[in-house]
Give the backbone structure.
Amino acid sequence: MTDVCDYPVDLRVDYAEPRSRGWAVLTILLVKLLALLPHGIVLAFLGIAQVVVAFVAQIAVVVRGEYPEGMFGFVTGVLRWATRVSAFLYSLTDRYPPFSLRADPGYPVDVLVERPPRSSRVYAAFTVAVQVAVTVGAVWLILWLFSRPDLAPVLGSGTGTGRSGFDLLRSLPQPGGGGLLLRELAALPHLIVLGLLGLAAFFVWVGVQWVILFTGRYPRGVFDFVVGIERWQVRVNAYGLGLVDRYPPFTFAPSLVAATPGTATPAAATPGAWYPDPTGRHELRYWDGRRWTGHVADGGVTATDPVDGGSGAG
């Protein structure tokens, strides 16, 4: 995969050989799902906290015009944790995911999100307004339904429509389920495409276990395809949580924030790679083939150089 884009969210997944036949067997037997149960329990609570923090952050953006750094780190950290679990489930790595929100250059899967210096107050205001309106509307509807005596059989015994009150509640829209509602609606075209791609990824996941079992390899083309889907999903999730205001691209391609250090000198390098920062201010700086850009990375976390503001380090 040689194409790159400049979207400020990226996913790094290191390709490794050989692959574990043991994990392939456990995946076929669905034992891997049991192994991930502790992560699932923790992420169920973290996911709720993530959406709440993302919503509060939008209020902060309305007031201050920027996403608070601590909230940004937490929301990104939960996204990173969930993505590592997903990558392990899809056999993109055989290393069990850590119980951590932090970036870890030593782990073969990482999510990189470049924190914008400013965020849109207008977009944040609309996001907050829609979230509040839908939440209040849903609560009012629930209270109204339970206050209607003529609907008691439907809500209580399941007669009339044949659905219990719990079924009815489950059928109501869930505001902020996995993201902020306005942004989730805006990302609907992505969600439709990702639904179809996810179906394809499921069949790949089933088939590739047998390939690993017999060959000990994860075919590179198939690997890149699944990583591309994961990368696409990560970008949509980051957008849905308000980490970035830029609409995500319809592409599998890695972006300029995929901080993988190059080994050649910039003069001889293929454009689009990371190298030790010549200014010495950061660990890595991105070389676009013509100049040093303002994209920098330290410990796997990307940012914009505060001195040149993205205009290049010369």
Notes: The chain has two domains: 9-150+183-241, 273-304. The chain has ten helices and six strands. Residues 9-150+183-241 form one domain.
